[in-house]
Amino acid sequence: MDGSGLPEIRSTCPYCGVGCGVLLRPDGEGGIAVRGDPEHPANHGRLCSKGSALGETVGLDHRFLSPVVDGEQSSWDDALQLVADRFSDTIARHGPDSVAFYVSGQLLTEDYYIANKLMKGFIGSANIDTNSRLCMASSVAGHKRAFGTDTVPGTYEDLDEADLVVLVGSNLAWCHPVLYQRVLAARKSRGTKIVVIDPRRTASCNDADLHLALQPGSDVALFNRLLSEIYESGAVDPGFVAHTNGFDSALDAARNEQASVTGLNDRQISEFCRLWIATEKVVTIYSQGVNQSSSGSDKVNAILNCHLATGRIGTPGCGPLSVTGQPNAMGGREVGGLANMLACHLDLENSDHRAAVRQFWDAPAIPEAPGLKAVDMFQAVGDGRIKALWIIHTNPAVSMPDADAVRDAIAACPFTVVSDITGATDTARLADVLLPATAWAEKDGTVTNSDRTISRQRKVIDAPGQARPDWDILAEVARRMGFTSAFDYASPAEIFREYAALSKVAAQLGRDFDVSGLSNISDTHYDDMEPRRWPVTSTREGGRFFGDGAFFHPDGKARFIPVRFKPPAARTEPRFPFRLNTGRLRDQWHTMTRTSLSPRLSAHLSEPFLDIHPADATALGLSAADLVRVTSPIGSSILRARITDSVQQGNVFAPIHWTGETAPSARIDALVAPVTDPVSGQPESKAGVVSVTRF
Ligand code: SF4
């Protein structure tokens, strides 16, 4: 307690997948003070600039406070009945696959669970996908191919114990700053070495022992070379490889690879391989630079192959670690928020899994085929196959590839519902029905971070106006569609118990995700729940996976996946001579709906820009701060040129955050072609092609 008379409440930061614990003290007037939670295992009290500024983002200026139908204020009763009637009518006329939900890693696990249950169990379509598809779908696919399940093997404690941390396609210093601080602490205490593999020289290179500025998209070739060197140097662990299949095929593919496509010289590659092989405790962290690629799944498996070959997985200080962009991307994966998954890591394509979920939910039908993944979903909206669409806490009119086409598709959709906290987004302005949802500090539920730790997000301040929790909105629409008893929930705790009970069914079917130890959790214990790393069962809690060589494929073995380098789908050519890399800034978040409310965050880098190499700038006659028109085969933007050798000659970089609201001419995803990885469906957001001209 302090002078305000109100106690601090433990909750979780709503930004990145690090999942830092925060202590929130409401001031009694709608504001909150924020500090890091010293007892949270993800951050031990640390916060980054975004987390520290959370208190500046809870004002009401940007909120809409009551439902809106066709631009007019409405009652909840009328708005929800309209949503239920239009979805029911569309399904009756055109079938269940004529409707879709596009949701978000901003949803809490309980919200996500209800959305997934409604679409897959009761509407009878798998057309629910999430903006996490843009972030980490390739990691999911890579994990499932190698391990049999989407399992993160290690924990954040591995960063404290590693002697080498390799960052692949990850600007950890800006995008997961608290994890980066943890790596730096290990560097100070035990001399941990840091290697950065990234075409750009980012802030994460400042402390690196080695920066490999490889050609965009060539990661597979580099890790194939590493696998070959592991074999040649006798570093393969035959005891561990006995728990796997496919090593010889993967090695054959690796040995036939030409590492020269990386653009790195032999000395650089040899130095990396020597360091990796000679260091027993290696953690390889990877993020969007790996995932957002037309060969993202192959890149993930190229990394996993090296850890499997050496047995450097699931033991202290060892393993691959996929870090997610959003606060609850992992929770979304766990509840089956992707169009090709069922809840609790059960598989939609597996008839036993479908039958088990159908029985558990007492559902009329579970679809047999995967639904439309994000890019395909909006193409189906555009060509009229999807006739009713519900978008929840995300802004696809800005953030999807080919964003102009997505914006036009949503505008032309016969019926679009948007649930969000603000009506001032490019997407919300296109909605037929706007539903005011509760925001971060008003919500109650759970999230899972990148190392499987489930944390409580707690309500700290009252919801303004008529805003309601997402699970409540979704369940009410479900009941009005006639699914009464299956959606009769009174609280997020009740939903969590059901979900935990379903995980016991999943575990009996050989799945990894098991939180059955929480299936009888009382409301009080749910309210008080400490961070818990899954699995949570009657006999086990937390820990690492796979150190014992037990995997989740039917034969209990892991799989090596033979992979070969594939260049990015779009080729540079005289009309589009530059390779466009897109990414995030330190102090902004997604499309800035929250972070732009903080003056100090907006002060970091305050306008959209394009980084271009000095030689390219000279060739184009550009001076620093010139405006440039950036044109791709599908769109055009106007940006401020920053001349810097942090990008390679022939490459340019632009941040993703600005929108039609904040900078109408700088919508970067309007430049990104809707090309996807054929395995994961993740768009190739980091390797487009563009021309640059002075504006
Ligand atoms: Fe929030 Fe991520 Fe920063 Fe932690 S590192 S405070 S979770 S944005």
TrEMBL record:
Which terms are listed as keywords in the entry? 4Fe-4S, Iron, Iron-sulfur, Metal-binding, Molybdenum, Nitrate assimilation, Oxidoreductase
Q: Which GO terms describe its molecular function?
A: 4 iron, 4 sulfur cluster binding; metal ion binding; molybdopterin cofactor binding; oxidoreductase activity
* GO BP, sorted A to Z: cellular respiration; nitrate assimilation
An example GO CC term for this entry is: oxidoreductase complex
Cofactor section = Mo-bis(molybdopterin guanine dinucleotide); [4Fe-4S] cluster
* Membrane-spanning parts: none
Residue ranges of the 4Fe-4S Mo/W bis-MGD-type domain? 6-62
Stated family: Belongs to the prokaryotic molybdopterin-containing oxidoreductase family. NasA/NapA/NarB subfamily.
* Name under which the protein is recorded: Nitrate reductase
Q: What is the lineage of its organism?
A: Bacteria, Pseudomonadati, Pseudomonadota, Alphaproteobacteria, Rhodobacterales
Which portion of the entire protein is included?
A: 1 to 695 of 876
